[in-house]
Design goal:
This protein is of the alpha/beta class. It folds into three domains: 218 residues, Spore Coat Polysaccharide Biosynthesis Protein SpsA, Chain A, CATH 3.90.550.10; 81 residues, Hexapeptide repeat proteins (UDP N-Acetylglucosamine Acyltransferase, domain 1, 3 Solenoid); 85 residues, UDP N-Acetylglucosamine Acyltransferase, domain 1 (3 Solenoid), CATH 2.160.10.10. The chain has ten helices and 36 strands. The strands form six sheets. Strands 13, 14, 16, 17, 19, 20, 22, 23, 25, 27, 30 and 33 form a twelve-stranded parallel sheet that branches. The protein is elongated and about 105 Å long. The N terminus is likely disordered. The protein binds uridine-diphosphate-N-acetylglucosamine and magnesium ion.
Length: 466
C-alpha cells in the first residue's frame, strides 16, 4: 500500500476560464462579470487563497488579456483552441512543472464554492488515498451535466449527458466539474485522454474511468446545489447576485447590524460593517466600503470606496464616493455628495452640499448648499476647512482655498482667497430695502392678470395699426 500523503500535502489549483461565455452576449469575458461588486473569478480566487492553495494557475482563452492581467499575482496560461476540459488542464502543466502534491481543478464561472467543501474533498482523498476525488451534486434538473456512475467499488466513471445511455441519464448524482487529484496521477491519466465522444473534445471527466482501469480508486463528495451554481447567462448572473446578497445581509445581521428592510440593502462582497450599525432601507454599498460601530445610516444612500467612523450619522439620500472618509460622530445629511474628502470628527455637512477634494476640520459646520468648486476644467484642487469653521449657506469655495480655524463665511459667499483663522469672509453687495415696493409690484401684477391674455391683446394692437 502507498503511504498516505502528509496531512499538510500542498495543493495547487487550476482555474478553467477559457470559455467564451457566448450566452452572456458580452464583450467582457464571462468570469469578469461582477457578483457583489467583485468579478466572478475573484470569488473563486479568494476562496482558493484562503485555503492556502498555491500556485494558482488560471487557464484563459486567446485575446483575454484583461482577464489574464486581472488575476495577477496568479499566473494565467492561454488555451489557444478550445478542445475540451482535459485539454484546458494540460495547458497548465508546464506552469506546474515539478509540483508535487494535490491539484484542484475548479471553474471560474462557479463562484460560490466554499473552503469547507474543498476541505472535505482533501480529507476524503487523504483518508482513502484516492487518485481522484470528484465533487458531485444533485441538481433539480440534471440536464446536460455529466453523470457520476457508482459501482461496487465506488466511483467508476463519469459519462457526459450527450454520451450517456437512457439508463445512465436517469442518474441524479452529477459532476460539478470540481476535481481534486494527485498531481502525478493527473498528468499520467491526462496523457491517455482521447477525443472519442459526441463532442469530439478531450474530456477531463475521462480521467476517472482511466484511473479505475489503472487500478486506482476514485471518490465522491456530495456538494450543495446552491454552492455549485454555474453562471452562463445574465439570468443566472442575477440568480447568483441574489444568493450572494442574501448571504451578505445575513452576515451583516449576524455581525450585529440592524437592517430595517434587509431585502432592499445591497452589499459588496468586501463590505465591512461593524456592530450596532443601523442601516435604513434602499442603501447600496459599492466596493471598498467599511463602516465602524454605532453608525446610523438613514437609508436611500449610495456608497463606494468610503469609510464611515464610529458614531457617524449618514443620510438619508447621501452619496459617498471613493476617498470619502467620514470621521467619528460626524453628520452627513440629505443630498450631500462627498468625494475624496476627509470630514473630521464631529463635523457636520447636513444639507445639499458637494464636498470634493477637501478636508472639513473637526466640528466645522458646512451650511446648506455649500459647494467646493474643485475642478477648473483641467485639474482638481483642494479645499481645506479648519476645525470649528462655519461655512454659510450657499457658499462657493473656489479651490485651491483654505478656510482658517474658527473662521466664518457669509451666506452666498464666493470664496476665492484664503480666510484667516477666526475671520469672516463676505463678498455680497450691500443690501438695499425699497419701502413698499413689494405691495406696489403685487398690485401691478394683479391688474395685468384681470386684463385679456397677452396674445389677443397683441393681435388687437396690430389690427389698429392697419
Ligand atoms: C462540464 C463537465 C460535466 C459537468 C459540467 C458542470 C466535462 C467534459 N464535462 O461540462 O461533466 O457536469 O461541466 O458544469 O468536463 N473550459 C475551458 N476550455 C475548454 C473547455 C472548457 O477552459 O476547452 C472551461 C469553461 O470555460 C468552463 C469549464 O471549463 O468554465 C467547463 O466547460 P463547459 O464547456 O461548460 O463544460 P460542460 O459541457 O458544461
Ligand atoms: Mg458548462
Amino acid at each position: 500500500m502507498n503511504a498516505r500523503p502528509a496531512p499538510t500535502s500542498p495543493t495547487a489549483a487550476i482555474v478553467l476560464a477559457a470559455g467564451e461565455g457566448t450566452r452572456m452576449k458580452s464583450s467582457l469575458p464571462k468570469v469578469l462579470h461582477a457578483i457583489g461588486g467583485r468579478p466572478m473569478i475573484g470569488h473563486v480566487l479568494e476562496t482558493l487563497g484562503a485555503e492556502r492553495m498555491a500556485p494558482i494557475i488560471v487557464v484563459v482563452g486567446p485575446g483575454m488579456d484583461d482577464l489574464a492581467a486581472s488575476v495577477a499575482p496568479h499566473r494565467a496560461v492561454v488555451q489557444r483552441q478550445r478542445k475540451g476540459t482535459a485539454h484546458a488542464v494540460v495547458q497548465a502543466k508546464s506552469a506546474l512543472k515539478g509540483f508535487k502534491g494535490d491539484i484542484l481543478i475548479v471553474y471560474g464561472d462557479t463562484p460560490f464554492i466554499t473552503g469547507a467543501t474543498l476541505q472535505k474533498m482533501r480529507a476524503v482523498r487523504r483518508k482513502n488515498n484516492h487518485a481522484v476525488v470528484v465533487l458531485g451534486f444533485r441538481p433539480n434538473d440534471p440536464g446536460a451535466y455529466g453523470r457520476l456512475i457508482i459501482g461496487a467499488n465506488g466511483l467508476e466513471r463519469i459519462v457526459e449527458a450527450k454520451d450517456a445511455s437512457a439508463e445512465e441519464r436517469e442518474v441524479r448524482l452529477c459532476n460539478s466539474g470540481i476535481i481534486l487529484a494527485d498531481a502525478g496521477a493527473l498528468w499520467r491519466l491526462l496523457a491517455d485522454v482521447k477525443a472519442d465522444n459526441a463532442k469530439r473534445e478531450y474530456y477531463l471527466t475521462d480521467i476517472v474511468g482511466l484511473a479505475r482501469k489503472a487500478g486506482l480508486t476514485c471518490g465522491v463528495v456530495d456538494g450543495e446545489s446552491e454552492e455549485l451554481l454555474g453562471v452562463n447567462s445574465r439570468a443566472e448572473l442575477a440568480i447568483a447576485e441574489d444568493i450572494l446578497q442574501k448571504r451578505l445581509r445575513q452576515n451583516a445581521m449576524a455581525g450585529g447590524a440592524t437592517l430595517i428592510d434587509p431585502s432592499t440593502v445591497y452589499f459588496s462582497a468586501d463590505t465591512k460593517i461593524g456592530r450596532d450599525v443601523v442601516i435604513g432601507p434602499f442603501t447600496v454599498f459599492g466596493p471598498g466600503v467599511s463602516v465602524e460601530d454605532n453608525v446610523h445610516i438613514k437609508g436611500f444612500c449610495h456608497f463606494e470606496g468610503a469609510h464611515i467612523s464610529a458614531g457617524a450619522i449618514v443620510g438619508p439620500y447621501a452619496r459617498l464616493r471613493p476617498g470619502a472618509q467620514i470621521g467619528s460622530d460626524a453628520h452627513i445629511g440629505n443630498f450631500v455628495e462627498v468625494k475624496n474628502a476627509v470630514v473630521e470628527k464631529g463635523a457636520k455637512v447636513n444639507h445639499l452640499s458637494y464636498v470634493g477634494d477637501a478636508r472639513v476640520g473637526a466640528k466645522a459646520n458646512v451650511g446648506a448648499g455649500t459647494i467646493t468648486a474643485n475642478y477648473d476644467g483641467f485639474g482638481k484642487h483642494l479645499t481645506d476647512i479648519g476645525a470649528g469653521a462655519s461655512i454659510g449657506s450657499n457658499t462657493v469655495l473656489v479651490a485651491p482655498v483654505k478656510i482658517g480655524e474658527g473662521a466664518m463665511t457669509g451666506a452666498g459667499a464666493v470664496v476665492r482667497k484664503d480666510v484667516p483663522d477666526d475671520a469672516l469672509a463676505v463678498n455680497s453687495s450691500r443690501q438695499e430695502n425699497r419701502d413698499g415696493f413689494a405691495a406696489k409690484y403685487r398690485k401691478m401684477k394683479q391688474g395685468v392678470k384681470s386684463k385679456p391674455a397677452l396674445k389677443s391683446a397683441a393681435k388687437k394692437k396690430t389690427k389698429k395699426k392697419k
